[in-house]
Amino acid sequence: MHMPLEDTLGRNLLAANQHRADHNREHFDAWKLLCLNVMSSPGAGKTSLLERTITALSPELAMAVLEGDMTTQLDADRLAAVGVPVVPITTGRACHLDAAMVSGGLTLLQQRLDPAALDLLWVENVGNLVCPAEFEVGEHLKVALLSVTEGDDKPLKYPVMFREADCVLITKIDLLPYVPVDVSRIEEHVRAVNPRAQVFRVSAGTGQGMGEWHRWLLATVREHAASQPPALVNA
């Protein structure tokens, strides 16, 4: 039995993307640089989370951002305003970043700074709960956001996103008094599809829960740097 043409093309596309993603990760490892792929639906609060997190952790970590968006550089401008190097990546009609786009962003970033001087590279993906989860970009970890305003069923309706995530941030918890949702049920649904994920309840607006998220993030960056063989530093 022959595989349908669309399935063959899809597999080839993902395989080619994975090859480029592996190449990106080789560079990250050579630089001892942790890369996080941040994903969510539109409006879940990715950029707000990054603004607050980068501001809080800048004294301890050197960071940069590859900012993906379909048409504008509005989010890139917001992040640049908090004093972090940002490379905007405009995807046009594509609903996700892929490894080739991130590779191009890395080339532009290298024209501005030495990536080996960084501790953490953020990749803020295009707002979408489907496509970004299927296309690796070379990241070490995936971070998925889900706002309380989206309801508690999204981990079950979009399982790939939450199954792939290493960390899930339940955002906008300051709005819980105003929305008919049970945050414990959101957590139950996340754990039903991915029991290994770290889960944090946060509000970038009020700062609730951000300290716990920041502590986990700092520990993760340090553990990653310590795990990289010294021989790779100058690779």
Biggest sheet: strand arrangement: 3-2-4-1-5-6-7
Second rung of CATH, namely the architecture = 3-Layer(aba) Sandwich
Tell me the series of helices and strands, N- to C-terminal. Answer: HEHEHEHEEHHEHEH
Q: What is the terminal separation in angstroms?
A: 45 Å
Backbone structural class = alpha/beta
How much is the average pLDDT? Answer: 93
CATH class: Alpha Beta
Could you name the ranges where pLDDT drops below 50 across 5 or more consecutive residues?
Answer: 231-235
Q: Estimate the strand proportion.
A: 15-25%
Question: How would you describe what is shown here?
Answer:
- The chain is α/β, with parallel strands linked by helices.
- It has a single domain (5-225), classed as P-loop containing nucleotide triphosphate hydrolases (Rossmann fold).
- Helices cover 41% and strands 17% of the residues.
- The protein contains 8 helices and 7 strands, in the order αβαβαβαββααβαβα.
- A 7-stranded parallel sheet has the order 3-2-4-1-5-6-7, sandwiched between helices.
- Helix 7 links the parallel strand 6 (167-171) and strand 7 (198-201).
- The longest helix is centred in the first third of the chain and has 26 residues, at 5-30.
- The radius of gyration is 18 Å and the shape is globular.
- It starts with a helix and ends in an 8-residue tail after the last helix.
